[in-house]
């Protein structure tokens, strides 16, 4: 697939959010692998302290230090880290005030916890600040003699496994969060740098949903809120999609509770299954349930379509999520033109 066939060319920060339980961490991991294909270098970041990424890749718990967690067939790399507010705060002090050595004392006195408790928005500024720094970071230029020369970006893309939908707009809108803390000075400058990245064309917010009533409603509400806040909405990643197992005519009847048990029994007998009549009666209930789930999923898709954003299917993995499964999901996202 050529680059012009992809929906998010030029995007370097992919924020992934969704209602709790929709599998946004799995989707974020698959998206990172998809972006790393064709030799890309991608950073996958988590900010909630849940250590959800490491088990997916079969690696030890993540730390504040970026490290490689996966390699694609064509040499692409996925790196990952868990952003901790305390470490980000100490890094911030070193960056702006040269106070990294004060970190031990700050830890002992609980200054970091105190600061983020008094001003909860400060924690989000610190977390998003680390993420956007990774987006902006460049390698050392090979043309050292040329004034203002910059090297390439260290990462081709950054994927953020972000907080749930209900908190995502506040989490990303750090300028509003920091306005009561500082109107001028390094803190405000830091927040402005963060927002410069978040509000740029290089950043989109993707929403993960399931084809169920509550996740769909929260997805639509989250999209509306993000738009109102001036954030660029990306795609809708429909997770845990199961295949349709029956023909359309059969589905239509079964969804209304009508199943020809006799026909089903004859098919089971032809397959050589014992006690085919009893089995057909039991199986008819499963057919009705499947048909009704398919109908509900179709209605959910119609509701998602009202957001007028691209939708991508992420298949349900019967065998559970592991690294080979993530690679399959990544391949499917690329085939759909997501990246």
TrEMBL record:
Q: InterPro entries, per this entry?
A: ArsA/GET3_ATPase-like (IPR025723), ATPase_ArsA/GET3 (IPR016300), P-loop_NTPase (IPR027417)
Q: Sorted alphabetically, which Pfam families does this protein's record hold?
A: ArsA_ATPase
In which domain of life is the source organism classified? Answer: Bacteria
Any coiled-coil ranges, and where? none
Domain (ArsA/GET3 Anion-transporting ATPase-like): residue spans on this chain: 13-179
UniProt xrefs under PANTHER family: ARSENICAL PUMP-DRIVING ATPASE ARSENITE-TRANSLOCATING ATPASE, ATPASE RV3679-RELATED
Q: What is this protein called?
A: AAA family ATPase
């Amino acid at each position: 697939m050529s680059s012009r066939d992809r929906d998010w060319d030029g995007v370097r920060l992919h924020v992934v959010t969704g209602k709790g339980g929709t599998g946004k961490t799995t989707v974020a991991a698959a998206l990172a692998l998809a972006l790393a294909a064709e030799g890309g270098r991608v950073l996958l970041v988590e900010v909630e302290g849940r250590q959800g990424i490491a088990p997916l890749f079969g690696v030890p718990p993540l730390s504040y230090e970026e490290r490689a967690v996966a390699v694609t067939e064509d040499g692409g790399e996925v790196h990952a880290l868990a952003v901790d507010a305390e470490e980000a705060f100490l890094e911030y002090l070193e960056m702006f005030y040269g106070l990294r050595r004060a970190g031990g004392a700050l830890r002992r006195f609980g200054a970091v916890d105190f600061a983020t408790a008094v001003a909860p928005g400060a924690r989000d500024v610190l977390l998003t600040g680390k993420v956007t720094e990774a987006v902006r970071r460049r390698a050392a230029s090979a043309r050292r003699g040329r004034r203002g020369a910059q090297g390439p970006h260290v990462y081709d893309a950054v994927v953020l496994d972000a907080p749930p939908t209900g908190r995502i707009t506040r989490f990303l809108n750090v300028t509003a969060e920091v306005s009561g803390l500082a109107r001028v000075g390094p803190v405000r400058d830091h927040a402005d740098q963060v927002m410069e990245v978040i509000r740029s064309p290089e950043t989109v917010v993707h929403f993960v949903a399931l084809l169920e009533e509550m996740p769909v409603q929260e997805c639509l509400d989250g999209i509306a809120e993000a738009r109102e806040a001036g954030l660029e909405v990306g795609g809708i990643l429909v997770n845990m999609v199961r295949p349709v197992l029956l023909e359309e005519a059969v589905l239509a009847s079964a969804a209304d509770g009508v199943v020809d048990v006799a026909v089903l029994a004859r098919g089971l007998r032809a397959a050589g299954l014992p006690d085919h009549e009893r089995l057909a009666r039991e199986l008819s209930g499963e057919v009705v349930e499947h048909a009704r789930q398919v109908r509900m999923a179709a209605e959910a898709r119609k509701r998602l379509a009202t957001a007028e954003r691209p939708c991508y299917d992420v298949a349900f993995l019967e065998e559970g999520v592991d690294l080979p499964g993530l690679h399959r999901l990544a391949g499917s996202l690329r085939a759909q033109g997501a990246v």
